[in-house]
Amino acid sequence: MSEKSFKSGDKVRWDHSQGTTTGHVVRKQTTPTKIKGHKVAASKDNPEYIVKSDKTGALAAHKPSELRKG
Length: 70
What we know:
- The structure is a single chain.
- This protein is an all-beta fold.
- It has one domain.
- 0% of the residues lie in helices and 50% in strands.
- It has no helices and 7 strands.
- The strands form 2 sheets. It has a 5-stranded antiparallel beta sheet with strand order 6-5-2-1-7, with no helix packed on it. A two-stranded antiparallel sheet has the order 3-4.
- Residues 9-67 form the Hypervirulence associated protein TUDOR domain.
- Pfam families: Hva1_TUDOR.
């Protein structure tokens, strides 16, 4: 299974409970971290992408499978 790949600055969109949000990739996270007190269990084998919402400016972590270029 090939992983979706994004790079810093890529425009992306993702679904959430209120619909779809757009933003851009800040970085690929390959080590555990925290965002707003929430644990991000990223690793080299299970990376997540830190994205910044265009609407709110908030940072969030998403698995590659949750993101679409857009």
